[in-house]
Amino acid sequence: MTFADLGLGNSLIKAISKAHYDTVYPIQQEAIPIILQKTDLIGLAPTGSGKTAAYVLPILEQLQKRPPTPGRSVPVLVIVPTRELAVQVKEVFELLAASLPTKIKCMAVFGGVSINPQMMQLHATSVLVGTPGRLLDLVSKNSTDLSQVETLVIDEADKLLNLGFKKEMDEIFSRLPKSRQSLLFSATIDPDVDSLMAKILVKPVRIEVGQETITPALINQTAYLVSAENKGPLLRFLIKEGAWKQVLVFTSSIRAADNLTVKLNKNGIQAMAFHGDKSQGGRTEALRQFKAGNLQVLVATDLAARGIDILELPYVINYELPRSPKDYIHRIGRTGRAESTGEAISLITQDDLPHFKVIQKKMKRFVELVDAANLGF
Questions:
Q1: Which residue among 93, 95, 100, 148 sits deepest, i.e. has the most Cβ atoms within 10 Å of its Cβ?
Q2: Mean pLDDT to the nearest integer, 41-60
Q3: Could you give the count of Cα atoms lying within 13 Å of 88 in the half-sphere of its Cβ?
């Protein structure tokens, strides 16, 4: 199947080809025709399954058929949990809209930076992508108007609720028109997401893609049993011995991320930390360098990593295990995306073994455990 088979117009098909979107993924194949019909949708798909383009493409098709919106009103609102995901979604919209005959203005808004430039640039925005808090700040300052939204997208709904945005989300819903199309995308479904769906969706079509294969088959997983004091030396050995580039390393805390970054740099491995205590400018620059291949190692915490999307990221390392199996799956899902192979490596202490067994049971996959003592650690 090709994108031309899904009901998209010639202009958008040309834009898709120019952007080198060559493969139609299952979530796109199922979601795009439904969204084009103006039907509400629940899309459940794992990380790296192509869900962003699954709603970006039909929305751009719809926007091609309407005049640009003047003033403060926005026809399309996309709500996301983090600033990084907001920027990522905006970039996908802009990439695919760049060569369309009708100019479509897209903006990403989020906290952690000055609100004034965002207020000044909002005029005549067709697609507004934002985090809940900053969206409400802009509404309160009369910089944007949500009462004319025609299409609402909630991306990573499970994360929005788990990160404590319920109050802000309720406030946003109260400002939206009742007559609209609502699209909800989530990697997982739980009672909180169910309650959200009942509140905002009207007779939605529900599609589930890939839920039976929680971890992509293209991810090769390995774990090393190592003492806590030898984690750092082992990590440096693996990176140097394998001459690894573009290595995303996860820690469980900001302090651990900063400490590990310092040690990596002291040992000749170029690294930058990526977490919530960093300025927005610092985070943007670190991510830019990492995506461009100019930074060898990015050391991130779970919250900051939402929205890191690199098509062919080769290595993800769990320097410390996350608290939940869901977060483990989300972490390793940063690699092995869009039919690219990837390596996911976990550094496990004896104390971690029981929790790691729970993670393996949850994802229904056994991970080979290598004794680091065999490597001299």
A1: 93
A2: 87
A3: 22
